[in-house]
Amino acid sequence: MSDQVLIQKVKSGNDHAFRLLVEKYRNDLFRTIYAVLRDQKEAEDAAQEVFIKIYTSLSQYDNQGFKTWMTRIAVNHAIDVKRKRELRREDIMDLEEATAWRTQKESIETELIFKERLTRVREKLHELPENYRHVIYDFYIAEKTYQQIAEEQNVQVKTIETKLYRARNWMRKHWKEDDFS
Asked: Cα 13 to chain center, whole Å?
């Protein structure tokens, strides 16, 4: 049966005639779409969508070369699918870049806040009584262990524990949390 006869039958409501057209052009249409998309799964999905478009647009077909008309629909649809895919990729890349930038910005802000607090703590250290200042600096700023501090000061570890305890109590009495924020 010729394409024209099948098309007339489809236009008059014969769905079997459309199945015959699909069988006849399925491979050609798939290859055309695959040439644009270069992805088998996407090409298969797009081919199904194209056949639906062809079926719904068949009433507008004017007997001017069915294969050419059908191929034009397929190529246009494949190009649309490819554009949407590229836009999704760009959106994903934009989102990833924005997330990376936000993370970088947050880490810079965190670092600045930390440095600012550290500066305030160092300024406040000068208010501490002399016998507490060194032990607080060594433990919190220099991050030394009790043992290291004790060895440097030629004292027992228990002495360092006691100095830190008293220094913390002194700070609780004389400083407010607002002094550091």
From this structure: 49
